Amino acid sequence: MGEGRWVEKGRRGLLATVLLLGMPVWAEAEATVDAPKPQGGVEEPLSEGGEGLAADEADEKKAGPQVRAFGRVFARVSADEREEYARALSIPSARVGVAASLSHLEAEVSADLSSKKILKDAFVRIADGKKRLRLYGGQFKAPFLARELESSWALPVMRRGLVADYLEDTHQVGGRRLGLMGEVSLKEAWKLKVSGGVFQGAKDEELDKRASEDAALRVSVRPFKALTLGASGYLTEVFAGTRNVALATDATLNLGGLALSGEYVQGKLPTGPFSAQLGLASYTLPVGSEGWAVQPVVGGEMLQLRGPLKARGYAFVGGLNVLYSEHFKAMFQAEHALRAGDEAPGLEYSLQLATRF
Questions:
Q1: Per the structure, how many domains does the chain have?
Q2: φ, ψ for residue 322 (rounded to 5)?
Q3: Model-level pTM greater than 0.90?
Q4: Boundaries of domain holding 14
């Protein structure tokens, strides 16, 4: 994985990079047809939270069955200092799906045509009449790590970041899994939400064998409308002695167009103990009365490995997004990062165009 090749070189360039990318501290929000509205924190841990059932809470009040098709496409061009700023064009997401709902039963299936693993979400959700108790079955996101649970459409940055990548891709902690999950929601108790379940373990490609089941739990409250507080945990191979453990706490503050989010993660991996810090901020400013908005964004991440293999990684990002209604966004961002495998930090510029229906 190259953790040992991380170096602390490049710190002198951080201050210059932050100043270069510097702008007022903003927070994440999403434009709507009437006016841009901020996101209200992580509310739906099962899917992408902006395309399928997670975006259709209002439809729960409608009588009769509801069926809706949805989709989105992201197109990105980037130039990375590590590759002598050679331009690279990619389609990081080409999502299509269908969501259906009855009074007590909901289902969603989605696929990403740009991914090697085409099937993304495929689940059924059963709820009582007041939506206080829910049971999920199928493939969906495990309730861990607020950054991972947020919809990629709603995120004001193009990537979830090096911490989410390191935990999910490198060590199979969290992400989409086959599983069974229960959820309790109590609106009268600070909108308390508790989600917990058991999920299929990671597969060892060399041995062609799947590990024992994992477990995940998330608890969140909203003491007042603008603030969401949460805590989550993920344990791998929980029925076979537990191999990896990761615990996280997070907070999201939305004040009009301003939104701030932060998360702290710590735990133990095969490489030893680790800790990580994530921060993200943006501000959505309406432009005119036709649904247009601009959104400055800035964020940072730090990851520390403290075991026998000591290493550090970081990433700082800043940029400007242009939003139109709920269906189009253009994002220009610059990232200064030291990732796993890098011998020195590098600067990358990216432009992404995204649309959805």
A1: 1
A2: -115, 125
A3: no
A4: 3-356
